[in-house]
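User: What would this chain look like folded?
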Amino acid sequence: MLKITKPANNRIDIEFDGKLDADGMRAGLDELIDKSDGIIHGQMLYRISEFNLPTIGAIGVELTRLPKLFSLLGKFDRCAVLSDAKWIRNAAEIEGAMFPGIQIKGFEPHQEEAAELWLQS
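Assistant: Here's the prediction, encoded as structure tokens.
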């Protein structure tokens, strides 16, 4: 499941849980791109409950949307990633170091309040 919400004009929240197929990936990415329209100096809160590798079809859908996804990076200044899995938090921070202009920081799920404060600082 991939759920995208926009709780504020400059904020996107993403919830990921389980495994994505091509249809779920397509719908989720299209919604993310749509809801990110007009965002400047945005914040993103990404909750990853249970991570399973997406299907081959879902990866194919993501690859076809890479140009639009890369353009999203310029819309967001900060992204907090909440996950039980340390490797996901670490991978997110490494990804943040690779892309200038966006800071990405990993948090454990019980640190949601700290993640919110960090996003707003």
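The chain is about 45% helix and 30% strand. If you want, I can go into more detail on any region.
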